Amino acid sequence: MTQLPIIEMRGITKSFPGVKALCGVSFAAYPGEVHALAGENGAGKSTLMKVLSGVYLPNDGAIVVAGKERHFKHPLDAIEAGISVIYQEFSLLPERTVAENIFLGREPTRCGIVDRRAMETEARRVVALFGEAQHIEPDALVADLDVASQQLVEIAKAVSLDAKVIVMDEPTAALNETECEALFALVEMLKKRGTAIVYITHRMREITKLADRVTVLKDGWTAASYDHVPTPDTIVHAMVGRDIGDYYAEPATAQEIGALVLSVRNAGNDQLKNISFDIKAGEIVGFAGLQGAGRVALARALFGAAPFTKGEVTLAGQSARFQSPREAIRAGVGLLPGDRKGEALVLMQSVSDNGMLTARALSNLAGHDKATRFASTTSMDALLRQVDVRAGNFSQEIKSLSGGNQQKTIVARWLSLDPKLLIFIEPTRGIDVNAKAGIYHLMRELARKGAAIMMVSSDLPEVLGTADRVLVMRLGELAGEFARGATEAQIMLAATGEKVGAA
Amino acid sequence: MRRLITATLAAALLASTAQAQQLNFDDPVEFDKQRQQLTAKANGPEGEPWVQYYGDAIVDTAKFKKDGPYTVCFSNAGVNNAWRVTGWTNMQAEVKLHPEIKELIHVDAEGSDDKQIADIDDLLNGGKCSVLIVSPNTTAALTPAVEKACGVLPVIVFDRGVNTKCPVTFIHPVGGYGFGIQAGEFVAANAPAGANVLLLRIIPGVDVLETRASAAKRIFKEKGLNVIGEEFTEGDNAKTKSIVEDYLAKGSLDAIWMDAGATAVAALEAFEDAGKPLPIITGEDQQDFLQKWKAEGFKAIAPTYPTYQWRTPIIAAVKVLRGDPVPGPEWVMPQPAITAENLDQYVNDKMPPLHHAMCGCEKLPDYPAAWGGK
Amino acid sequence: MTQPASMRNIAPARRRLQQINPVYFVLAVLIVAIAVSNPSFVEPTGYMNFLKRAAPLAILAAGQIYVIVSGGFDLSVGSLITLTVVGSSMLLNNNADATWWVILVMYVIGALVGLINGLVVSYLRVPSLIATLGMMITLNGVAFMWSSGSPRGYLPETFRYFGRVNIQGVPLIQFLPVALIALVMVGATFYWLMHRTNFGRMLHAIGDNPRAAKMSGVPVERVRVLAFMVSAFSAVTAGILLGGFAGVSTDVGIGYELQAITATVIGGAQLLGGRGSVPASIAGALTLTAIFTLLNFVGLPKPTRDVVQGVILIAAVVLATYRRNRTGT
Amino acid sequence: MSSFARYRAAWRLERYAPALLLGIALLIYIAMALGLGQTRFLTPEAAVSILNRSIALGMTAVGQTFAILVGSIDLSVAHLISASAVVSSAIMDGNPAMMLPAAFAALALGAVVGTLNGLLITKLEVNPLIATLGMSLVIQGCLASFYGSFKGSVPDEFQIFAYGNLLGLPISLLVLVMLTLLAWLVLRFTRFGSNVYSVGGNRDTARAAGIKTARIVIASHVICSLYAALAGLYLASRLKSGSPWIGAEGAYDLESIAVVVIGGTILSGGKGGIWGTVAGVIIFSLIDSIFNLAGVDAFAKQVMRGIIIVAAVAFYAVRSKRMAA
Fold first, then answer.
1. Which domain of life is it from (chain A) (predicted)?
2. What is the reported pTM?
3. Interface test with D, best of A85, A95, A117 (most D CBs within 10 A)
């Protein structure tokens, strides 16, 4: 290519208290090209894009747009420079309509009056680009849409901006096959118009299919950068930095699998139907499926956060249809939520307090906080050290710890209670590679000690590498069961109910 | 920068208009008039000050003559303090003495001018009222509403006035200067020249309280007393006590002058708790103060703003509706002070602490139960 | 490993100094200023009167901080104070023998008020600002209804003992106000409950992140209800002290809710929950009282006091935000 | 979930809840009037008089809606109302020629206060409750030290604002209707209005979409303060002069907040609207009228009011999945 890049990021460095998220990363996007940005969770992809979109100010480095150095102090600067980002975590306002969300902050006006008709016409036009199957009324409230439709609104927002650069952060995570194809067609169309697309994914198939260049990030560094599309193996190697083999822990041996711990029969609620499965002590059971397939709903139902309304559940022989997390915890169930900041951490409190939280919650309210029935601060310190939480001291606020150390603290929280069943949801989301391996080994260690482990993850290689058995969910039901050694293709097939050529 | 300039301008505006506007609460003519009234002989039956009046201005009310039974409407500023509670009880009891009154419709403005204006509007729209009694929340604010009512039916105003002569009569005791004079002269007569006097006030800006203070200050100045402070208590016991404690910590206090006596006992307790002898003090006719006065025997006077004035509007209303003449357009009634000599007449330990003794209610129906007494 | 280099190099002593809540320094400076402007303050009558006067607000702040840490507000405390004083006077009617059971009844009423506040916030999901605003209006009405507008009984000396009496003949300090003993006892109990028990930790957790607390097994509703009950308990206590200090009146409690919240904010509490300390809130209350006392001694009129209170309130929050941003926590 | 359903705007109870509450209040009122045989309380004149009760509260609440929608709150309106009333009446001082300058000064004061509130909240990151509470104390203090009592007086020409009639309707009511319509137009039809909802809904999302969130918050506070200043002008006209306690006396700070949330605008922002607030104001007036009709005394009225505020908000809140604190 002889063309000039539309945008170029040079030597971007960004650090947060306690974490260095990006270290001298460079990146460029050319018109009419798809530049794939690959990397593990926590490699810095999202942070890089937030710098590009003006959400974060970089500590060092430069952004050059059309040959001119720019400093984005506010997202508006980036938008004006023609950069549009579709974030992984949705940035939609649930209480507003589809059209209002698409035109958030840039509503068309006529004589100062918002031109609702123009808004709805344009929204209709953009949504129509996705094909006949995807029909969303512009005046529907976003809160009334399902996850996939919301994703579509996100994309529509960027498309309607007519941006020079569109960043898509794992856009297919919630889409089914047909929707994916429509998206790919859309990407091709945008390419033809001369838009530069930054496509963040860790799905090799999408890279192979769409990308013109590939950059791989790892732990905040540029691990590799290619002006062509290399083989998936090369990319994976650059992403992971070592062989998959020793990355995951050893599977369970036949002897290690013990008595039945959890048994679910014909259970269901408004999101789940007819669920039946078992988990034995010492076993890690992975749950795969598309976003919205009911895996998280199942975990929350077991944990009593969104209880089952029918069916039977037993835990170690006892009836176990819990109505609240507290009830579940008392009976020996633990859960590590996927939304760590939202559902697990109390950010202003210390590492130690976060570890002690559940032990204290189950103890006498008037009891001494340093020595509860389940753990004392001393035993918690030992646990935290055992799971290898790295902090200056355990009385510092947990806010300043990295994602991996935060997650390990939550593991220690549950360890102190010796749970019979431990549910991990997206256990390695936003965690760096080394910490990931640590979490995998911790899970295995727990299983060896006799816990039954349920793991819900959208990271298919992770599920395949960690679980002893994989259950696949689709549309709120169990759609298949696979022993260790299944391929991604088999699982995707079960998850989508369609023929898939997964990487 | 532009914002800064705007802000400065606004502040300057505030300050300059403030300078230009100082209402006059120190009127020597009114001062002398009220001083005379305090010692003048009132017309009307002895021992019933609620029907007594000064002067001989009488208004003819024949044009309001109407057959009974009557519906009396009363727009009340509020019953938000003990004085008004005693008064309101008086008024209700007075109504029971008049069988020709079929109904007393009472609307409570809860201390809000805005609401009282709306209330009067409602009463007029209701069309049931034979006569309207108004106890205005503030003088200026209620004037337009009262003017409007005058066009429709006879209006009687009492307690605070309005800036219009349209009501049939405006019933009130001698006034703020009179109160200030009684209290001020007592302190001046009993304290040695140069004595330290602390003025305890409720809040600034209320006309009747301002005139009390200006009268007292005029007297203190004449006598050469040393006013060492003028503090606002917001009628709060705790604040009053704290303020007095602070003054006692700083130096000696010989006398306390109060523009309203509600917190007099708290002021005295500050002396007690500090182990200091009780000062010369001016209070009001609240029972707790009178009882303490009787028990401790300190030098005190209790000028009153008598709650018996709440009986008068009902009496006047009935007269007006019958077409009988009433004192007016101002009905100024006596404003006695309680002194050591007549204290025993008013002390009554069967009555609740915040009961106002100058209520003229002892012979009214349901006394003392309705007033909370035993 | 995650500590920035600059933090490591600070001498331990200085670091500890930085960790001390600035409210204590501010309070110390104010006390010195008062003592300078009015030398008699250093005598027992001076500072004991000060503490006695500050005790109700300090107790109230120590209770309010429970609700603040749990992520809410309690605006109903002022009215509850009024209700306590008015209700006690109605029930007691100068009958000294009834003191103890009347106090008990008042605490039961307080517990009920806290319980209702907590239940409304927890189960009806009404924001505490609105729930306790409604309670404030309601209780005020109840107090007036009960007394038909003006309280009809005296408070006997046995009741007023707690707020008024100084125990004489105490060595060193000559005398000791009972209110101060009450403050120390309540302060110590509240300190223990907030900073030494599981309850206190749960309180921080639900204010910090209620969803995470729920998912971690914290009985969120129960803890929240208890927080409102503690606050109501402190309001009844403050009411007993204020009634004792100054006797019967109908508007004792007015404005105390905002003063209590102000005190906790000056004490560095995080509004909307997760951070706050009982001793610092008490210090905040003392600071507020000290400011008023100082302005009084200096002879500034009330309007100026309002302005100063407003400015200090905003400044305290700005300072706390600035400190937090700077230390990166 | 694997294919896109055809989504249309769904019918939602919340949207009609304020109207429902208003309907209930209206029914009670009518039932009481009929029951007591007081049918003259059901005439158009009576309706106008009910609405006329709450002009000042209405103006303040419409402004407060902006502050709450944007995710903030304003406790300084009560004292700002007093300040506006006093300053304008002091400047007019009975002189009709000074009417415009006085109104301008009051509005300028409102703009300054609103800007300061907004700056404190956005630039110094002070919690809006504390920022506006502090501001409220400062205004109160300034007011009391400059003006002790009623100041100035309003010329008769200016009193037309509060007492005049046009086409058989009170001018003040017409002004309130116009101000309400204006607020509705701004919120519904301008980009700024959309931005208010966006910033209130989620400040980070709004920022990421390129909205200058600080400006929106400041502007919302300026609007809130301007409406309060207008309420002050109205009260000056109604009371013939400005009193420094008129705002606090009417408890316009807490009442306006109560009215807004009764109207279904959620305290955390981003959801609700002007018509809900209007419903809330009318509900409050109706409650007043119902109590007056029934002859309930002021104290019992207070008790009921407190309960009604909580019950109305619970009516909305109990269905939402949000955890309250």
1. Bacteria
2. 0.89
3. A95
Is residue C42 in a domain?
no
Q: If you search the block for the tokens 């002989």, which residue do you land on?
A: B41
| Gap between the Cα atoms of C259 and C227, Å rounded | 19
Higher model confidence: residue A498 or residue A15?
A15
What's the token pair of residue B102?
A: 């079929």
pLDDT tens track for C43-71: 888 888 899 999 999 999 999 999 999 99
Asked whether A293 and A483 are in contact (CB, 8 A), the reply is no
Q: Give chain B's end-to-end CA distance (angstroms, integer).
A: 68
* Burial class for C35, CB neighbours closer than 10 Å (0-12, 13-18, 19+): middle
Bridge partners, residue B104, by sequence: B72
CATH at C294: 1.10.3470
Cβ of D14 under 8 Å from any chain C Cβ? no
Q: How many angstroms separate the CA atoms of D169 and D185, rounded?
A: 23
Chain C closest-CA separation from residue A326 CA (Å): 4
Judging contacts by C-beta atoms under 8 Å, the chain B residues touching residue C56 are 238
pLDDT, tens digit (0-9, with 9 covering 90-100), for A264-297: 999 999 889 999 999 999 999 999 987 778 899 9
**CA–CA separation, A193 and A186 (whole Å):** 11
- pLDDT band at residue A315 under the 50/70/90 scheme: very high
The CATH superfamily of B176-303 is Response regulator (3.40.50.2300)
> Can you identify the CATH homologous superfamily of domain B39-174+307-335?
Response regulator (3.40.50.2300)
Q: Are B247 and B197 in contact (CB under 8 A)?
A: no
How far apart CA A467 and CA A16 sit, in angstroms, is 34
Taking contacts as CB-CB distances below 8 angstroms, the residues of chain C near B246 are 293, 296-297
Q: In chain D, what are the domains?
A: 13-30+40-313 (1.10.3470)
* Fold assignment, A7-240: Rossmann fold (3.40.50)
Q: Which amino acid is at D205?
A: T
Closest CA to A411 of C216, C202, C3: C216
- Please give the residue range of the domain that contains residue C138: 50-327
* C310 neighbourhood in chain D, CB within 8 Å: 133-138, 140-141
Shortest CB distance from D198 goes to which of A79, A97, A105?
A: A105
Answer whether D279's CB lies under 8 Å from D21's CB: yes
Q: Which helix (H) or strand (E) holds A187?
A: helix A177-192
C-alpha dihedral sign at B165, B166, B167, B169: positive
Q: Are B86 and B359 in contact (CB under 8 A)?
A: yes
Do the Cβ atoms of A93 and D1 come within 8 Å? no
Q: Complex ipTM, two decimals?
A: 0.87
| Residue B266 to residue C246, Cβ atoms within 8 A | yes
Q: How many CA atoms lie within 13 A of C121 on its CB side?
A: 35
Considering CB atoms only, which of C134, C148, C314 is closest to D307? C134
Q: Which CATH superfamily is domain A258-332+420-503 in?
A: P-loop containing nucleotide triphosphate hydrolases (3.40.50.300)
Identify the sign of the CA torsion A358, A363, A365, A367: negative
Query: What is the block-wise mean pLDDT of chain C (329 residues), using blocks of 10 residues?
Result: 41 64 90 88 85 94 97 95 93 86 96 96 92 94 87 85 86 87 96 94 94 94 96 97 88 89 91 91 94 80 78 84 64
Distance of alpha carbon A141 from alpha carbon A62, whole angstroms: 39
Q: Is C5 within a domain?
A: no
**Scanning every residue of chain A, which has its alpha carbon at the shortest distance from the alpha carbon of D202?**
A93
Instruction: Say if residue A190's pLDDT is above 80.
Output: yes
Q: What pLDDT does residue A41 have?
A: 64
Cα Rg for chain D, rounded, in angstroms?
A: 20
H or E stretch covering C320 = helix C302-327
- Residue A114 has its nearest CB partner, among D12, D189, D212, at D189
Which of A243-247, B144-148, C271-275 bottoms out in mean pLDDT, i.e. has the lowest? A243-247
